[in-house]
Amino acid sequence: MRAQVLLCPTITAYGRLYCAPRRLHRYNSSSSSSQFLNLNLSRFSGALFFHMEQFQSGTGSSGKRGMVENLKRYGVISSKRVAQVMEALDRGLFVPVGSSAYVDTPVPIGYNATISAPHMHATCLQLLEDKLHPGMRALDVGSGTGYLTGCFALMVGAEGRVVGVDHIPELVDMSIKNIEKSVAASFLNKGSLSLHVGDGRKGWQEFAPYDAIHVGAAASEIPQPLLDQLKPGGRMVIPLGTYFQELKVIDKNEDGSIKVHTETSVRYVPLTSRVEQLGGF
Ligand code: SAH
């Protein structure tokens, strides 16, 4: 994949609207880098995908706040709780040193994986918000850096339970270190948040059933164990597809039946075996 830098009029900045040329990246499917995976293609290819150049400096509160303000302004975040957790959990602690933490773009984290773009994290938090109230249970499959897993922990609180699963041991180690530096550290220490090495296609039976399941990598079909581990009344958000992918929202009704709707087009890294992932795309 290759990013083309475009000039496109868009709106932004500090509560006032103005038209200014902004740098947009357009997805080009012919290339193979993972740099621009884990994003919403609708936003990415349209005027809503934006760079937040003014907030790139450092990991201070202005960066986090600016990122969240822009996501609110563009209508990605509408919930106060989602805004609060994304501002509380510093994305700067989860991206590799030297990366732009608050720019609305995925960032490579090694092992052919990326931390999702902020708008994608925000979209998934919005979709799952109702299933992330204090005391609820959430599973994050393909937890990568642990950023979204940490957001879940802040939302369900110490009475809830959050499990992150990734099949790359080095990423799980890194995610634990990231969380330890963050405001979500106490949940890790007290045991309401845990991160595990495993094949996320099998879910994590130990703490099932889950009110919320998020899958951070694109599956070719919905893994049955994840459907089984979803609580009646629960919701799963999962990118489905190989080349063309759609973010699916799966609601399990109280009688166990399933309702599925498509949220948007996306581009994620594949939910696959460790060998295939490390062998390249
Ligand atoms: N949501 C995370 C990471 C997204 S990248 C973040 O934003 O930081 C997708 C992640 O899925 C990668 O970390 C990759 O290692 C993981 N993954 C892919 N297939 C998997 C599988 N079968 N089981 C567990 N994790 C998997």
UniProtKB/TrEMBL annotation:
Catalyzed reaction equations: [protein]-L-isoaspartate + S-adenosyl-L-methionine = [protein]-L-isoaspartate alpha-methyl ester + S-adenosyl-L-homocysteine
PROSITE patterns: PCMT
Cellular component, GO annotation: cytoplasm
Molecular-function GO terms, alphabetical: protein-L-isoaspartate (D-aspartate) O-methyltransferase activity
Signal sequence annotation: none
Pfam families attached to this UniProt entry: PCMT (PF01135)
Keywords, ordered alphabetically: Methyltransferase, S-adenosyl-L-methionine, Transferase
UniProt-listed GO biological process terms: methylation; protein repair
Family: Belongs to the methyltransferase superfamily. L-isoaspartyl/D-aspartyl protein methyltransferase family.
Protein name: Protein-L-isoaspartate O-methyltransferase
